Amino acid sequence: MNTLTAADALVRRDLGHLWHPCTQMHDHETIPMVPIARGDGAWLVGVDGRRYLDGISSWWTNLFGHANPRLAASLAEQARTLEHVIFAGFTHEPAVALAEELVRVTPPGLDRVFYADNGSAAIEVALKMSFHYWLNQGHGEKTRFIALTGSYHGETLGALSVSDVALYRKTYAPLLLTPILAPSPDAYEAEPGESAPQVAQRRLGELRALLERHAHEVCAVIVEPLVQCAGGMRMYHPDYLAGLRRLCDEFQVHFIADEIAVGFGRTGTLFACEQAQVSPDFMCLSKGLTGGFLPLSAVLTNTAVYEAFYAEYSAGKAFLHSHSYTGNPLACRVALETLGIFRDEPVLARNRQLAEHLSRRLAPLRDHPHVADVRQTGMIAAVELVADKASRRPFPAADRRGLRVYLHGLRHGAVLRPLGDVIYFMPPYVVTPQDIDHLVDTAVSGIALAVSD
């Protein structure tokens, strides 16, 4: 008599009813669903007791480990006090204290905070707020946005409208706005002998040409500072952000910084924009904001934007955008504690040491015959697999070489979920050098397996 294990039983129940994100469910006829019972720092523990090192921070959200005691305690304390209250006409201490702390730690001038509940929603807020600002200023002709090639900002319709990853966009194209695409300053696309700063300057020249033609109809330029994450972990030089700020000022368009994935220490500084010493007009935050515990996002903007909406009710200038769980006290309280960890512990200094170790361990892959690039920005690193190194010819997408690395990782206790054939590392900040060794060793052996035929 066959008896299902607890893990098998949970998977069967899952596949009986659930529809998972970013997944072709048919794949799970052959690709294992991994049932997780609990988290333990940088590790996930399966229902069957197997342990998996979370090399991607559970979709880039987890900063200080699963079931972090300090964050869990703050959540429990808040749950005993106030779980939620309507945020229109009401307020509460966690939301106010978090806003004060966000204003304190973000780049200068970002002194107004609007809460939403996930990254895509934050992008929607920023896009609508930028458009509405110009409308309130008497510039209703400004209805378009400039985005970078290869960009990804989310999968709600507005966020998808300013994204340029065909995998996500092409199906819904008839429903979307059409962005004006500026060439990405991605250093991987450098011409022979061209440095990353030179790529940034060349691309700024092309952006200037676009603004000369379109600034009159453009609300904002939206970018992911330093790393275009879902677009393949493409990385570029901070000079581009500095030049972008100058161009936005010159041509009177907004600068929207999507720091949803790159904020909170991922790039080596608390926020990526700091590396160019710029303040955007809008900064979108989510993911690491709550240390990976709860959904929450925030859009920070400046006084000039806020005052364009501040008027008598009869003027009809209010920003009428809301989410039921806006300013949720549980999420705000955990986010405040997350920022407290940055304040109380040497997180960024420790991250620099971990990033250096990761860089040393990945360096030998630069000579691999099927690796076109090894790139890194802070605690984000990526390895680009190709069929031919000299020409950078990719493997056929149907080969799913990256998937082979992922499956190998699961068999060896590591979560390495690729972006196509880009194997990337974005671990929680509580990993040890030994954990990094485990991730890299698993990736190296997985790559050898993936390119073997």
Write up this protein:
The protein is an alpha/beta fold. The protein folds into 2 domains: 34-67 and 348-450, Aspartate Aminotransferase, domain 1 (Alpha-Beta Complex), CATH 3.90.1150.10; 72-344, Type I PLP-dependent aspartate aminotransferase-like (Major domain) (Aspartate Aminotransferase, domain 2, 3-Layer(aba) Sandwich). 36% of the residues lie in helices and 15% in strands. It contains 14 helices and 16 strands. The strands form 4 sheets. A 7-stranded mixed β-sheet has the order 4-12-11-10-7-5-6, with helices on both faces. The chain has a 4-stranded mixed β-sheet with strand order 1-2-3-15. β8 and β9 (234-235) form a beta hairpin. α12 packs parallel to α14.
Which features characterize this protein?
about 450 residues; alpha/beta; Aspartate Aminotransferase, domain 1; Aspartate Aminotransferase, domain 2; 2 domains; four-stranded mixed beta sheet; globular; adenosylmethionine-8-amino-7-oxononanoate transaminase activity; cytoplasm; pyridoxal phosphate
Name the average pLDDT. 97
The main sheet orders its strands as 4-12-11-10-7-5-6
Level-2 CATH architecture of the largest domain: 3-Layer(aba) Sandwich
Order of helices and strands: HEEEHHHEHEHHEHEEEHEEEHHHEEHEEH
CATH class placement of the largest domain: Alpha Beta
Protein name: Adenosylmethionine-8-amino-7-oxononanoate aminotransferase
Enzyme class: transferase
Pathway: Cofactor biosynthesis; biotin biosynthesis; 7,8-diaminononanoate from 8-amino-7-oxononanoate (SAM route): step 1/1
Catalytic activity: (8S)-8-amino-7-oxononanoate + S-adenosyl-L-methionine = S-adenosyl-4-methylsulfanyl-2-oxobutanoate + (7R,8S)-7,8-diammoniononanoate
